[in-house]
Specification:
The chain has 8 helices and 10 strands. It has a 4-stranded antiparallel beta sheet with strand order 2-3-7-4, sandwiched between helices. Strands 1-8 form a two-stranded parallel sheet. The protein has 2 domains: about 150 residues, no CATH class; about 70 residues, no CATH class. By secondary structure, it is of the alpha+beta class. The chain is globular and about 55 Å long. Helix 1 runs antiparallel to helix 3. A hairpin with a 5-residue loop joins strand 5 and strand 6.
Amino acid sequence: MTGILERSMIDAIATALFAHALILRGGFNFAGGEETPPGLSGAAARSILLVGQAGAAPWPHFLRWKESQSRTIADPLDIWSREVIGAAAKKFGARAVSPSDRPYLPFQQWGMRAEGLRPSPLGILMHPQYGLWHAYRGALLFEDEIALQEPRGVIHLCDTCLEKPCLKSCPVDAYSADGFAHETCLVHVRGQNGAPCRTGGCLDRNACPYGTDYRYPPEVQAFHMAAFARL
């Protein structure tokens, strides 16, 4: 049997991450017999803590780090996230993983399990407080179990939204019941009429009425849109 990662250790991890405005986004123990990624030693992980952000809180920390890097650095936010979460993993005996790792890990499924969230019509998980303005930046895998209860009774705000403005604001109807028309969106964002999306972010996402206090500022949305379009 492995040990139990106590609440005091989880609190210490949260404190270390909060210095960079990252937060723990829940966690859970993998079920017995469940196929899991390896932990630090290479043995199967027994538990996971998700790391992410609420709103754009980490942005100033990221910008200070970015100023010291090469101007040509690719995927800087991923690199910064890996460094910060990797340092926490080293300090607390975990293995750090990232949403951009290949092969891709099931971060969305992990988020649904850890926080009880469900996808919005845009595919982004809807959070009862943050709305669509949150993200997972990585996760810590442990070979011990953790002392956390799984969430219960989380309200899915999309069920209360009758108008669904998130499906009515995109000029090229990139989101529909058929899913996300990636190529259609990409062509529009890169084109002459895509300036509002490039400078202010996805119009459908911005139309969501929930979590507006956490909405990313335009410069943050422009950063993410440029990464999406590789502009």
